[in-house]
Design a protein that fits this description.
heterodimer, A: alpha+beta, Beta-galactosidase, Chain A, domain 5, 2 domains, ten-stranded antiparallel β-sheet, 11 helices, B: alpha+beta, 3 strands, about 20% helix
Chain lengths: ~600, ~70
């Protein structure tokens, strides 16, 4: 396969979130009726730009637009004339009719109570059917929780595609928005996937887990910039790039670099790559958006669409509507097929490189700038059930929990004391220690016999007067729920030396920067003897000679994580943390000679 | 003095932007300056524009077209 697919979505939002807010504050903003007209004009302009460039779009009708005869008429006309898909979004709920009926200013569907979710869905889908005479094949929101998707599929089984998350839009977006934007949606895939019935973020492992839809992310985001920055600055959304001030003299090559890097992901995904563009009307309003004047907002939209059109004209892009894409995706993807991205920095000039991997068992990130340390780990194998919305006991937090998140819960670097979450390897010789986290390197990707292999360029460490060249290889076997990690000693300046290794993983659990209650986590080592302790912040360690595993059972996220050695002869250990370092560490210790290697596995399982 | 409003463009606070915070500034017509309601920043439009340019220092590739993704 050699395909780069583009989904273009537009929504006649009528009362965009931002415009409504501005008007409501009495700062001279337009009246609601004025906003209606301007929003519809923006939608028409977006449609016009797409059609001028020869693209068909997916028109996601909003609840408010279903009360507007002109918006309905435009959708019908464009469906007939251009082949646009008439779809239905659960964004854009705010309008007079909605507020009168539901008596609330809430507008994010995943935060409603389940009863209200059902009522809103039936209302919106019913109104759509009334206006168009059929039900939509696709839908979406910023996030679609598993219970919501389940309800929609039961009531409206024709729905096959949904915008279901915003990649890495969580605490970072909340902070960027002055702690007032409640999209806690971290931890999902960056590219389309088939959500499981249990948790939208975690892909389905088989037909039984299949939620029945193909999910697409809300825009395609920079896999490096968004990991440590505001997700709404770095995506295939031209005005987001302006928001990030990533332009000079009205030019924004970064946007094209981002699109092109997404195209390049074909190399890692059997010839398939994807992009999604979905700009709400609020981003092209006449008053401008922050520092960007209207003219620049529109120029960026036109330029981006023209760039996509150029790619299509050269045979390098194919546009699809959402439902077309869902059929295509299912025709060429198996459940267990992973999504891979070896991503490089295209903005900061750092040469940093991250490898992202997602399958039904895990999402993880390997940072080559830290010697191949694992800096993000989400245990999809656990399919953590996390109902979200009013009445669930969890109103806001739709993020999929991590075991490792080196930005939120420190990584290699901590202040003075304690540990941060990371998986790496330390080497020791005559009392000196070196961690691969401090060895910057690069990696290459290959695929062999059902395995995706990340081979890092060798790094050199210096320990007590000797130099050692070490290479790391990460192997992801499809469907295994494991990462195989090999550390090879390629050279030693003194070939007779023996160095110590400590293949370790420091982890915790959570969805934010703040620590969770670690009490009750079980830490177990197996080997000649089995040792076990229950987490109580007492800084203890258990160890088994001739270790066969070091395990943690983390009940709050229903996850069992194990570190397993490939050979006997090393010891397995588990270290509890303490109050100032609420983490645990699982590891394997042993020795290596020149030419030797150690292989270990990191395995993730459902705990119950 | 009357309450502050928005200026010609909806400038964000450049100081907060550099710490990943998007906060609209308000405009004091009497003093002819923008000010942030969260941090102590104040500045004229000219200063804000200059600082916004400075904030791009971290984007070393801002003007580069990249074609090699290996």
């Amino acid at each position: 396969m050699d395909k780069f697919i583009l989904n273009i979505l537009h929504r006649p939002e009528m009362v965009p979130e931002y415009a409504q807010n501005a008007a409501g504050k009495g700062d001279g903003g337009a009246s609601e009726s004025g906003i209606y007209k301007e929003s519809l004009d923006i939608f028409k302009l977006q449609q016009q730009i797409a059609h001028e460039n020869g693209f068909k779009t997916t028109i996601q009708m909003t609840y408010s637009s279903l009360f507007n005869d002109e918006a309905v008429s435009i959708a019908k006309e464009h469906h007939e004339k251009y082949g646009d898909e008439i779809s239905l979004t659960l964004l854009g709920l705010p309008c007079k009719e909605f507020r009168e009926k539901y008596k609330t200013h809430d507008f994010c569907i995943w935060m409603f109570s389940m009863d209200d979710k059902k009522a809103v869905v039936d209302d919106v889908f019913g109104k759509f059917h009334e206006r168009f005479g059929f039900y939509p094949l696709s839908t979406g929101s910023y996030y679609m929780d598993a219970d919501l998707i389940g309800y929609i599929k039961r009531q409206y089984p024709m729905v096959k595609c949904a915008v279901a998350t915003c990649w890495e839009e969580g605490p970072k977006a909340y902070h960027t928005c002055n702690n007032s934007w409640y999209t806690f949606l971290d931890g999902g895939p960056w590219n389309p996937w088939i959500p499981s019935k249990q948790n939208t973020h975690a892909p389905a492992a088989d037909e039984n887990e299949d939620s029945g839809i193909v999910a697409v992310p809300h825009i395609s985001r920079d896999l490096l910039a968004c990991f440590d920055g505001n997700g709404s600055n770095f995506g295939t959304h031209p005005q987001n790039v302006l928001r990030g001030m990533i332009y000079k003299d009205g030019r924004f090559p970064y946007l094209y670099n981002l699109i092109d890097q997404y195209r390049s992901l074909k190399k890692y995904n059997r010839g398939y790559a994807y992009n999604m563009m979905f700009v709400g009307p609020g981003w092209m309003n006449k008053k401008g958006r922050w520092e960007a004047p209207y003219e620049l907002l529109v120029k960026s939209y036109r330029d981006c669409m023209a760039y996509y059109a150029g790619l299509r004209d050269r045979g390098e892009l194919q546009d699809m509507t959402m439902s077309e894409f869902a059929d295509f995706y299912r025709s060429c993807h198996t459940y267990k097929q992973p999504e891979c991205a070896l991503w490089k920095d295209i903005l900061y000039g750092s040469q940093k490189q991250l490898f992202w991997y997602a399958d039904p068992y895990m999402r993880t990130c390997v940072d080559m700038n830290q010697g191949g340390a694992i800096v993000d780990l989400r245990p999809y194998a656990a399919k953590v059930r996390r109902p979200v919305g009013i009445g669930t006991g969890n109103v806001y937090d739709a993020s999929y929990p991590f075991l490792i998140q080196s930005m939120y819960r420190a990584g290699y670097f901590t202040h003075y004391a304690g540990k941060g979450t990371i998986k790496s390897c330390k080497f020791t010789y005559k009392g000196e220690e070196a961690d691969l986290c401090l060895c910057r390197t690069k990696a290459g990707f290959s695929e062999e016999e059902g395995c995706r292999i990340l081979t890092l360029d060798p790094v050199e460490i210096e320990l007590s007067g000797i130099k050692v060249k070490i290479q790391s290889v990460f192997t992801f076997k499809e469907g295994s729920s494991e990462i195989k990690i090999t550390r090879r000693v390629l050279e030693m300046s003194d070939p007779l030396c023996e160095i110590g290794f400590d293949e370790y993983m420091t982890a915790c659990y959570g969805t934010t920067e703040y620590p969770e209650d670690m009490n009750g986590i079980k830490l177990i080592t197996r080997g000649e003897k089995t040792e076990e302790m229950v987490y109580a912040y007492r800084d203890r360690e258990v160890c088994s000679a001739n270790g066969t595993s070091a395990e943690a059972v983390i009940t709050p996220v229903n996850t069992k994580a194990s570190v397993l050695p490939g050979t006997r002869g090393c010891s397995s250990y588990a270290h509890e943390g303490y109050a100032f370092s609420p983490m645990f560490t699982l590891g394997l210790r042993g020795t290596l000679k020149n030419g030797g290697e150690v292989t270990s596995w990191l395995r993730l399982e459902k705990a119950d | 003095m009357a309450q502050a409003g928005k200026g010609r463009l909806n400038y964000r606070c450049p100081s907060c932007f550099m710490r990943d915070l998007d906060i609209d500034m308000f405009y004091d017509k009497e003093k002819k300056e923008y000010y942030c309601i969260r941090c102590p920043f104040t500045g004229t439009e000219e200063e804000v524009v200059k600082l916004n340019e400075m904030a791009k220092f971290r984007y070393k590739n801002i003007s580069d077209r990249i074609t090699d993704f290996d």
